[in-house]
């Protein structure tokens, strides 16, 4: 069902520009779309390989209702709505000459000798009453008027225009496309139009190949704009700096980052096994969550440390550069070391106070620091494992997490000790030919079975909570599964 909907979606996105006008009801949709395309659509040149903005010029013949006395203009617009031109990005009130203004009439009212037959009686009446003159009007359209989709439709081969690639992910000033092979020859044309039409984009890149590297980074090809992939991006109230070609970043995960961060409470301890440049760890640290953040990619580790400092979270977030397995295995010991070394962490918050000076009657402000002191707990409340391709396979590393006698004795002594919640991301891909298409419940069962196998312990399915993060492809959903690590698994002797 979901798969079918996604398939059909592509069929209905075509010419967006003209779906907004209000006179839909007059003619059938297809005729109307054709009429609007021929009247307002851009000129077409399918041989264009290098973008020629000056090619996109068009004069559209319309009629304008010109007012000798502008005081009636507002009333006319209100009363005669159905006969007025309403198109996004075209103003319907226009200057007619130096002294007077006019209102553009609906797009299909074109004939100066026969406009009355197309107008509603009330408009005809108002034209007479307000002494309005109807005149020809030429509306000049240029490159600025058309949207990315319209321009690309006018220049790409006809067999490609049903799925124009106008969507992109953005990180800082970089727009990131993932062009299918058939669009690659038109990459720079597509990139240039996207660059022109999105004021915050300064560089457009395309993934060179689809093969994921170990660190989930991709070779990039700069299609348009400046060759600079050093980006700065804001997310969850924090600033992140990184080289987009060397680390993993996906702005589409913003909601997922915030969803989990919202579940963490101040003084929780989180182990972020595949932390990247810190989109979970740094904002969590900012709300006084203690985080041990790890990434194997030396470049991610470098930017993770920079982002921790940049956001003043260095007392709450510690960075590690280990393989995920090694990190999980050693995490209880790393936390004990941290808590033994420091016992508490402090967060200094700058407080500005404004006060009235009683002598001079003037306001002055003083700066003060409010210090929050947090005792470092000795056990984890959460782990985050966002490496959806393979994170599940790391789960066996949690077997015997607290089996080390030193760790076990410390943990067992804590009266209110809680077992950690493991938040593990995964894809549960299925064949597009699978009939019937598996339901979400069926996919949950498949993931649950893998988890039980990996930790070698039965957990009731209802004790796992599943969250559909997004579909990276119609049959490749990404989930986050959260479950409490069973005590028997955590303390099992290795
Ligand atoms: C999908 S990214 C997620 C990054 C970040 N948590 C986020 O949400 O944007 C996965 C991260 O895992 C790191 N990684 C890959 N294999 C790893 C391993 N074996 N151990 C630790 N980190 C690994 C990659 O470098 C990458 O930064």
Automatic annotation (TrEMBL):
Q: Which reaction(s) are listed as its catalytic activity?
A: guanosine(37) in tRNA + S-adenosyl-L-methionine = N(1)-methylguanosine(37) in tRNA + S-adenosyl-L-homocysteine + H(+)
Highest taxon of the lineage: Eukaryota
Keywords carried by this UniProt record? Cytoplasm, Methyltransferase, Mitochondrion, Nucleus, S-adenosyl-L-methionine, Transferase, tRNA processing
Start and end residues of each SAM-dependent methyltransferase TRM5/TYW2-type domain: 168-487
Cell location: Mitochondrion matrix; Nucleus; Cytoplasm
Q: Name one GO cellular component term.
A: nucleus
Entry's Gene3D superfamilies? Met-10+ protein-like domains, Vaccinia Virus protein VP39
**Record-annotated residues binding S-adenosyl-L-methionine?**
257, 295-296, 323-324, 386
Q: Which Pfam families does the entry link to?
A: TRM5-TYW2_MTfase, TYW2_N_2
Molecular-function annotations in GO = tRNA (guanine(37)-N1)-methyltransferase activity
Q: Name one GO biological process term.
A: mitochondrial tRNA methylation
Enzyme Commission code: 2.1.1.228
Its top-level enzyme class, in one word, is: transferase
Main subcellular location of this protein, as a coarse class: mitochondrion
Biological function: Specifically methylates the N1 position of guanosine-37 in various cytoplasmic and mitochondrial tRNAs. Methylation is not dependent on the nature of the nucleoside 5' of the target nucleoside. This is the first step in the biosynthesis of wybutosine (yW), a modified base adjacent to the anticodon of tRNAs and required for accurate decoding.
- What does the subunit section of this Swiss-Prot or TrEMBL entry state? Monomer.
Q: Which family does it belong to?
A: Belongs to the class I-like SAM-binding methyltransferase superfamily. TRM5/TYW2 family.
What is the designated name of this protein? tRNA (guanine(37)-N1)-methyltransferase
Q: Gene of origin?
A: TRM5
């Amino acid at each position: 069902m979901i798969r079918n909907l996604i398939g059909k979606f592509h069929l209905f996105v075509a010419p967006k520009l003209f779906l907004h006008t209000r006179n839909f009801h007059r003619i059938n949709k297809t005729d109307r779309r054709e009429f609007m395309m021929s009247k307002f659509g851009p000129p077409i040149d399918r041989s264009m390989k290098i973008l020629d903005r000056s090619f996109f010029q068009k004069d559209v013949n319309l009629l304008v209702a010109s007012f000798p006395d502008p005081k009636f203009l507002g009333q006319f617009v209100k009363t005669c709505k159905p006969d007025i031109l309403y198109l996004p990005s075209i103003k319907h009130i226009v200057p007619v000459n130096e002294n007077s203004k006019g209102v553009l009439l609906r797009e299909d009212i074109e004939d100066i000798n026969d406009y009355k037959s197309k107008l509603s009686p009330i408009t005809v009446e108002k034209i007479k009453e307000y002494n309005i003159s109807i005149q020809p009007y030429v509306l000049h359209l240029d490159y600025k008027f058309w949207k990315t989709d319209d321009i690309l439709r006018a220049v790409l081969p006809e067999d490609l225009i049903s799925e124009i690639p106008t969507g992109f992910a953005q990180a800082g000033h970089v727009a990131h496309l993932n062009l299918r092979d058939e669009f690659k020859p038109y990459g720079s044309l597509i990139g240039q139009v996207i660059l022109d039409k999105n004021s915050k984009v300064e560089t457009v890149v395309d993934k060179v190949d689809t093969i994921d590297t170990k660190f989930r980074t991709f070779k990039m090809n700069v299609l348009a704009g400046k060759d600079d992939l050093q980006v700065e991006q804001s997310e969850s109230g924090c600033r992140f700096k990184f080289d987009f070609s060397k680390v993993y970043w996906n702005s589409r995960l913003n909601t997922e980052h915030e969803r989990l961060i919202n579940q963490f409470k101040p003084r929780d301890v989180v182990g972020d096994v595949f932390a990247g440049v810190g989109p979970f760890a740094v904002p969590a640290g900012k709300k006084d969550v203690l985080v041990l953040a790890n990434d194997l990619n030396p470049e991610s580790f470098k930017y993770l440390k920079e982002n921790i400092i940049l956001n003043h979270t260095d007392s709450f977030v510690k960075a590690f550069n280990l393989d995920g397995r090694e990190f999980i295995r050693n995490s209880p010991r790393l936390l004990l070391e941290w808590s033994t070394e420091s016992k508490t962490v402090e967060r200094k918050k700058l407080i500005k106070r404004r006060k009235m000076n009683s002598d001079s009657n003037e306001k002055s402000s003083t700066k003060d620091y409010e210090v929050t002191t947090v005792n470092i707990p000795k056990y984890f409340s959460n782990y985050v494992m966002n490496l959806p391709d393979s994170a599940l396979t790391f789960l066996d590393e949690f077997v015997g997490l607290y089996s080390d006698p030193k760790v076990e004795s410390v943990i067992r002594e804590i009266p209110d000790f809680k077992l950690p919640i493991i938040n593990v991301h995964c894809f549960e891909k299925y064949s597009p030919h699978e009939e019937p298409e598996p339901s979400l419940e069926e996919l949950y069962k498949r993931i649950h079975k893998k988890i039980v196998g990996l930790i070698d312990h039965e957990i009731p399915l209802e004790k796992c909570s599943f969250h559909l993060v997004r579909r990276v492809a119609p049959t490749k959903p990404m989930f986050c599964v959260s479950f409490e690590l069973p005590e028997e698994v955590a303390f099992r002797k290795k």
